[in-house]
Amino acid sequence: MSILGLKKKQPKTFKVKVITMDAEMEFSCEVKWKGKDLFDLVCRTVGLRETWFFGLRYTVKDTYAWLKQEKRVLDQEVPKDSPITFHFLAKFFPEKVEEELVQEITQHLFFLQVKKQILDEEIFCSPEASVLLASYAVQAKYGDYDPNFHKPGFLAQDELLPKRVLMQYQMTADMWEEKITAWYAEHRGIARDEAEMEYLKIAQDLEMYGVSYFAITQNKRDTDLLLGVDAQGLHIYSPNSKLSPNKSFPWSGIRNISYSEKEFTIKPLDKKKDVFKFYSSQLRVNKLILQLCIGNHDLFMRRRKVDSIEVQQMKAQAKEEKARKKMERQILAREKQMREEAERAKEEMERRLFQLQDEARLANEALLRSEETADLLAEKAQIAEEEAKLLAHKAAEAEQERQRLEVTAMKTKEEKRLMEQKMREAEQLAVKLVEQSERRLKEADHLKQDLTEAKDAERRAKQKLLEITKTTYPLIAAYSTPPAPPEAADLGYESASTRLDFKDSDMKRLSMEIERERLEYMEKSKHLQDQLKELKSEIESLKLEEQQQQAGLYGLQSEARGYVQEPVYIPHSNRNSAYMSQMAFFEEV
């Protein structure tokens, strides 16, 4: 085996990853490819013809560099990773975007890059301009504003404003969205490419637009400064101020820029002006500054010359493309308008159709109701006729009932007369009983008085007898008088007791007579009360029957006449007053 066979085979290709502003691409490149080969491949893939604005940028340690087109890719200080990562970005910026950016893809890539730089605060933007730029970004993304589709909160996931602006004001996300939407609604009818161009036209007037900043020091005094390189020329800034340069050197006023290791020399076109020198400590940064100065100066000189045939063709094609797109948009707008009008007409026709259908349905319902009403009226007429016949029959029955009730009323009157006679007799009997009861009460009072007097006389007699007895016996004993014969004493005692017994017998007899009379009086009173209760129940039954008869007669008469009146009760004042007085009198008795 030869020594050559032991050598490891070198790969013929290497992997490359290119990141644009809106996509990522991977390529397999040959080892011998130069930077121009890879750059042209990316441009063809993207469809970009304005290649002089762009480049492939890669990261080297703590800075960045642009891929050189005349050297092989692998011979440059590119990362050794696999795949090697490059960013396809705008390296040079135009002075006037509307005049220089021809292709739509070029405008779109610039729009995305400038938008990212503003959101990342690499380009300073005031809050008012930030809101206006955000509204054009929303128009480019969502098209015309439609309140039915773009509901509140539809921008919640979009990053539209720099964080510095959001923190500068105490406003909620909904308040910012409301402000942006107010501007967004005014951009109706602007196409995506037009919205992106309006965005770039506003952004190109910002102080930090298209400026690449580098840290430098001045020659004699070791003062820290910032060098800014853009499409207009070179600018010197203070470290704390990137907005207003301290000194500017436009490309038209620079005669020569020389570079020697770390020293840069700017020679003005006017020889009377002083030469400006500055220093940069990093070699890679110095090379990058030189590349940007050469590229921006070349584009500056190119803009002031007649466009090349290629650029003229591109502009002509772009003009035709814009005219064609404008025509298409106009046609589309007309078609959209016609479609909206047709939809409105369709909606109007549908609404009219629904209205006619509703009217027809209501008419059918009214017709059905009319037919039902006619049937109901016919049925009611038949029912009314039957009711008339029934009322005539009831009227005849009522007339018969009235005649019967009249007869009954006559009988009732006779019964009432008899009842009144009975009531008068009962009243007379009650008066007699009252008089008799009063007389009996008086007699009872006299008897009670006599009884009381008898009892008092008896008590006095007994008291006197006791006194006589007590006084008699001591006298006999004192005078030694012989005692009276026992017969005589017994006789006197018997006479006294006889008188007492006589008095007791009279009292008992008198009490028995009074008790007997009281019992007789109670029996008569009870009998009289029973009679009064029977009489009262008979009167109540007669009154109830009379009322029922009158109500029945009145109801039949009302039905015969076809209407009902409330019954009128005619009070029998004389009869009722006499009856109530008698009842009160009997209850007192």
Write structural notes for this entry.
Residues 14-304 form the FERM domain. Residues 315-464, 518-552 form a coiled coil. It holds the Pfam family FERM_N. The model is unreliable at 1-7, 475-502 and 562-589 (pLDDT under 50). The longest helix has 170 residues, at 309-478. The protein has 4 domains: 13-90, Roll (Ubiquitin-like (UB roll)); 104-204, Up-down Bundle (Acyl-CoA Binding Protein), CATH 1.20.80; 212-305, PH-domain like (Roll); 311-408 and 416-476. The chain is an alpha+beta fold and 589 residues long. The strands form 2 sheets. It has a 7-stranded antiparallel beta sheet, with helices on one face. A 5-stranded mixed beta sheet has the order 2-1-5-3-4, with helices on both faces. Helices cover 62% and strands 12% of the residues. It has helices at 3-6, 35-46, 97-100, 104-119, 127-142, 163-168, 173-184, 192-203, 283-303, 309-478, 486-561, 573-588; strands at residues 13-19, 24-30, 54-60, 63-66, 84-90, 212-218, 224-229, 233-237, 247-250, 254-260, 263-268, 276-279.
Topology of this structure?
Blueprint: H1 3-6, E1 13-19, E2 24-30, H2 35-46, E3 54-60, E4 63-66, E5 84-90, H3 97-100, H4 104-119, H5 127-142, H6 163-168, H7 173-184, H8 192-203, E6 212-218, E7 224-229, E8 233-237, E9 247-250, E10 254-260, E11 263-268, E12 276-279, H9 283-303, H10 309-478, H11 486-561, H12 573-588
Parallel strand pairs: 1-5
Antiparallel strand pairs: 1-2, 3-4, 3-5, 6-7, 6-12, 7-8, 8-9, 10-11, 11-12
